[in-house]
Fold this sequence. Notes:
Oligomer: single chain
Number of domains: 1
Order of helices and strands: HHEHHHEH
Helix content: 40-55%
Amino acid sequence: QIGEHGTSKDRSSLEPRLNTGTTVAPFWQRVLIAPNDVNYHLEHHMFASIPPYNLKRLHTLLSTRGYYDDYDCISHGFGDVLRRAVRPDTPEMVPAE
């Protein structure tokens, strides 16, 4: 659940790239944490009729066409998901140096 919506920038937005996310993860993480390609959650929200086994292909197609450019909606592994889930939301929350 954290990887699906917990790292999104704006859960109230209708834009899928802002209200959900995708986690590009290594095989062992997909087997243990996200079986059945549930890590491609953003693509699932955009095209719910696509079978789960084709979501990775859809992700690759959209990536090559620049669909995710300028959006912070892709996590790289579930360690990245956790890091992004605890990041400050606003600049005011960033500790002063």
